[in-house]
Amino acid sequence: MNIQITGATGFIGRNLQSFLESKNYQTHSLSLRNQGWVENFDQHSDALIHLAGKAHDTSNTSLPEDYFKVNVELTKKVFEKFLDSEIIYFFFFSSVKAVADTVDTVLEEDIVGNPFTPYGKSKLKAEEYLLRQKLPSDKRLFIIRPCMVHGPGNKGNLNLLFKVINKGIPWPLAAYQNKRSFLSIYNLNFLIDRMLHQELESGVYNFSDDEPLSTNQLIKIIAETTGKKPKYWKLNPKYIEKAASIGDNLKLPLNTERLKKLTENYVVSNNKIKKALMVSSLPVSAKEGMIKTIKNF
Q1: In this predicted structure, what is the pLDDT of residue 38?
Q2: pTM above the 0.85 mark?
Q3: Domain contains 120
């Protein structure tokens, strides 16, 4: 099977392409960074995995229009090429943030989208465009909504937590009790592989590990993996939130956006994709996936 991938130089793209090639897929990277991509588009691939996009900027320095230009308008052009080609499968990597910035219970696919950020709004608008298009009977559209993905080469908040624990600094946000879904790159790769081999209905599918983790659990996993003893500080959340608001203005490592990511509840259901693929559980547990990621830091 021949797979064409946009955004193959990103974290997910690099890992997914390497995995697919290890499974004897033929892969082709399609860079969308210049107008020449149209000439390089492979009309005869079996599947197109559209990963290219503008990621959420936690420093909040990007302009809103930047997200829509890349995540919506560029996606439209790529999908139009797909419709005019012989390609059967179109995978669009959206995000759970396309429909919900906060989750009170468990996030499922049928939720009515209500994103707050330009990133989430742009992803939702791209989803809505794709779902409005008339799809030929021989083609399939899969909109993938992953939660936070981690694995080798991962950057961001996990790396920040690792540095804090590795330096022996007590975790200052232990007063927050939360549950959050993650997605290891190993489970993401597994799901894409299975989707390419089974006849699934077009539609929206959440991707997440089977079990959520609290940030305090995550701190314990990092400490145990690195041979450290976890240290917790239960500081008053009011003082933490005030410090985060100061960080917004002074561009400090802890800001409101990052505090939210580290302490919020955000549990995502993966029942729909597991039922469609007829699997009872994913191959890597949430804890095992985290340990593998931490060992690569």
Answers
A1: 95
A2: yes
A3: yes
